[in-house]
Specification:
Its EC number is 6.2.1.5. Pfam families: ATP-grasp_2, Ligase_CoA. Heterotetramer of two alpha and two beta subunits. Keywords: ATP-binding, Ligase, Magnesium, Metal-binding, Nucleotide-binding, Tricarboxylic acid cycle. Belongs to the succinate/malate CoA ligase beta subunit family. Helices cover 35% and strands 24% of the residues. The strands form 5 sheets. Strands 8, 9, 10, 11, 12 and 13 form a 6-stranded antiparallel sheet that branches. It has a 4-stranded antiparallel sheet with strand order 1-7-2-4, covered by helices on one side. A 4-stranded parallel sheet has the order 15-17-18-19, sandwiched between helices. Helix 11 (341-355) links the parallel strand 17 (329-336) and strand 18 (362-368). It is elongated. The protein folds into 3 domains: 21-111, ATP-grasp fold, A domain (Dna Ligase, domain 1); 122-246, ATP-grasp fold, B domain (D-amino Acid Aminotransferase, Chain A, domain 1), CATH 3.30.470.20; 256-402, 3-Layer(aba) Sandwich (Rossmann fold). It contains 13 helices and 19 strands. It has helices at 5-14, 28-42, 79-85, 149-155, 173-182, 187-206, 243-246, 256-263, 282-294, 311-321, 341-355, 371-379, 391-402, and strands at 22-25, 47-51, 62-63, 71-74, 91-93, 102-103, 107-111, 122-131, 136-142, 160-165, 209-219, 225-227, 231-234, 267-270, 275-279, 301-304, 329-336, 362-368, 385-388. It has 403 residues and is of the alpha+beta class.
């Protein structure tokens, strides 16, 4: 589960990670009040206004309606509501949102941390994630902070520092010092970075997160180390242990169909194709998507109804798939192991009658327990639903349906 930057920073701060202080607002007037509070608390006189959406590249992105960047600098209190108005309510398009962009409902008014001092500020990159290949967490760091890390990794892999953490013992002090040393830090900045890495790792483990990405990590001109940005992805499977973090979910940032599917206990991911698919089991769903492509179509979604599929879940799946105007046919592919095929067939018939006229052809492929009985129920239903036994047969019927 992704959370906003302002939420991520509050999480990090609770574990002792130094952050760029900021206050969230949802209106230009609220942004001005936030700036005044920030001025009183930190003494800052310049303010960074940041769009709060679940996507990266905000600084380079553009708000369609105003042409404003997703991250702007206000050099006075009077400038804050003007700059915030250029972002709030607009559609921000970045390299991660696609052409449709995302509506900005909130901005973070943050303190200016690039102040003059004894030395030049320096940006670094730091992330923590699970390396599944090695079965351990890995800290990734680079001196090239603030840049597209993917491009750095591709063109200058030698600039990516990696430190794997043994899950049996956790992060050791020498490992945090090793990363700070490889980043070229010394003196107080070195000590600050060691403390920053240690606190960040404690936050990662303590929150059961799937990924932390801090880009940039800033060394200020007076050698403080702090998180200027923060991208946090929480592990959905562990949220039952963190009800406070689960409450941070912003469904407005998610696909409405995926949210609706989740309420019905369905695993749904919208794609760009023309054949809707409803399957029981993730592996079978992947194979079904391959089969659709081989038949000349493109999968319109990934939809796993699970092992306990019934008329209610099948109907919910139908309603979700049919909300996609690109769908020209629906393929239901079920292996009757935990659930019997005749039960699925009855569920399809009941769901079809409940919804009423379904404008696209439906192909139902049933295999496993009571498959023949299931096919008979489908064929004798009198509905515009055709049955298939083999994958080849189902593929041919899909091809005919979308031709």
């Amino acid at each position: 589960m992704n959370i906003h930057e302002y939420q991520a920073k509050e999480l990090l701060k609770s574990y002792g990670v130094r952050i760029q202080e900021g206050i969230v607002a949802d209106s230009p007037e609220g942004a001005l009040e936030a700036a005044k509070k920030l001025n009183a608390a930190t003494g800052t006189s310049w303010y960074v206004i940041k769009a709060q959406i679940h996507a990266g590249g905000r600084g380079k992105g553009l708000v369609n309606e105003t042409g404003s960047r997703g991250v702007v600098l206000a050099k006075s209190l009077e400038d804050v509501p003007v700059k915030a108005a250029g972002i709030l309510g607009g559609t921000l398009v970045t390299i991660q949102t696609g052409d449709e962009g995302k509506k900005v409902n909130k901005v973070l008014v943050a303190e200016d941390v690039y102040y003059p001092g004894a030395s030049e500020p320096k940006e670094y990159y730091l992330s923590i994630l699970l390396d599944r290949g090695k079965g351990s967490n890995v800290i990734m760091a680079s001196t090239e902070g603030g840049m597209d890390i993917e491009e750095v990794a591709e063109k200058h892999p030698e600039k990516i520092i990696k430190e794997w953490i043994d899950p049996k013992v956790g992060l050791q002090g020498f490992q945090a010092r090793k990363v700070a040393f490889k980043l070229g830090l010394e003196g107080n900045a070195f000590k600050e970075m060691v403390k920053f890495i240690t606190s960040l790792y404690n936050a990662y483990v303590g929150s059961d997160s799937a990924q932390f990405e801090i880009n940039p990590v800033l060394k200020t001109s007076d050698d403080k180390i702090l998180a200027v940005d923060a991208k946090v992805n929480l592990d959905d499977n562990a949220l039952y242990r963190h009800q406070d973090l689960a409450a941070l979910r912003d469904v407005a940032e998610e696909d409405p169909l995926e949210v609706e599917a989740g309420k019905s206990g369905l695993n749904y991911v919208k794609l760009d194709g023309n054949v809707g698919c409803m399957v029981n089991g993730a592996g079978l769903a992947m194979a079904t998507m391959d089969m659709i492509k081989l038949s000349g179509g493109e999968p319109a979604n990934f939809l796993d109804v699970g092992g306990g599929a019934n008329a209610v879940t099948v109907e919910a799946g139908f309603r979700i798939i049919l909300q996609d105007p690109n769908v020209k046919a629906i393929l239901i592919n079920v292996f009757g192991g935990i659930v019997r095929c005749d039960r699925i067939a009855n569920g399809v018939v009941e769901a079809y009658k409940s919804i009423g006229n379904i404008p696209v052809p439906i192909i139902v492929r049933l295999q496993g327990t009571n498959a023949e009985e299931g096919a008979r129920i489908i064929d004798e239903s009198g509905l515009k639903v055709s049955s298939a036994i083999t994958l080849k047969d189902a593929a041919e019927k899909v091809k005919a349906a979308i031709s």
